[in-house]
């Protein structure tokens, strides 16, 4: 039973930081890539980052490059998204996802995703 529980969202002022966490269970966490995507009303779903399992490859969307950092702690079955210098346009529900494959690409539509966490950035 694949479960991906995101947390850590909240309301912050522009320029602030948040660290999102996603605790996974029900699958071999160490074997698979993880991704973060976000969904805001009126906008297309955007994959903001991904991280592979075995070689540590990471990718970032241009919209967050230089501000967000993805990481994982396999011992804790957790993937993180450190978000710095937040902007109002970052406001969205953020989800973590996987497809039970070691595939890290921003164009991929990951099949497994869990409960998201709301990030709201005020001016």
Structure in a nutshell:
With 123 residues, the chain is mainly beta. It has no helices and eleven strands. Strands 2, 4, 5, 6, 9, 10 and 11 form a seven-stranded mixed beta sheet that branches. The protein has a four-stranded antiparallel beta sheet with strand order 1-3-8-7, with no helix packed on it.
Fold topology:
Blueprint: E1 3-7, E2 10-13, E3 18-25, E4 34-39, E5 46-51, E6 58-60, E7 68-73, E8 78-83, E9 92-98, E10 112-113, E11 117-122
Parallel strand pairs: 2-11
Antiparallel strand pairs: 1-3, 3-8, 4-5, 4-9, 5-6, 7-8, 9-10, 9-11
Keywords:
mainly beta, 123 residues, single chain
Structure report:
The chain is mainly beta. It is 0% helix and 48% strand. It has no helices and eleven strands. A hairpin with a 6-residue loop joins strand 4 and strand 5. The model has no long low-confidence stretch (mean pLDDT 95).
How large a portion of the residues is in β-strands, by DSSP E? over 45%
Number of helices: 0
Would you identify the regions where 5 or more consecutive residues have pLDDT less than 50?
A: none
| Largest sheet: number of strands, sense, barrel closure | 7 strands, mixed
Count of DSSP E strands? 11
In terms of structural class, how would the helical and strand content be classed?
mainly beta
Q: Radius of gyration over alpha carbons?
A: 13 Å
Mean model confidence by pLDDT: 95
SSE string, helix = H, strand = E? EEEEEEEEEEE
Termini separation:
40 Å
Helix content: under 10%
**Broad shape:** globular
């Amino acid at each position: 039973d694949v479960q991906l529980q995101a947390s850590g969202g909240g309301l912050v002022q522009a320029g602030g930081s948040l660290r999102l966490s996603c605790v996974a269970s029900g699958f071999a966490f160490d074997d698979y890539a993880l991704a973060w995507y976000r969904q805001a009303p009126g906008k297309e779903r955007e994959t903001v980052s991904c991280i592979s399992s075995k070689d540590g490859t990471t990718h970032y969307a241009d919209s967050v490059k230089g501000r967000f950092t993805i990481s994982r702690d396999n011992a804790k079955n957790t993937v993180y998204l450190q978000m710095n210098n937040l902007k109002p346009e970052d406001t969205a529900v953020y989800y973590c996802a996987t497809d039970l494959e070691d595939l890290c690409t921003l164009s991929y539509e990951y099949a497994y995703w869990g409960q998201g966490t709301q990030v709201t950035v005020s001016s």
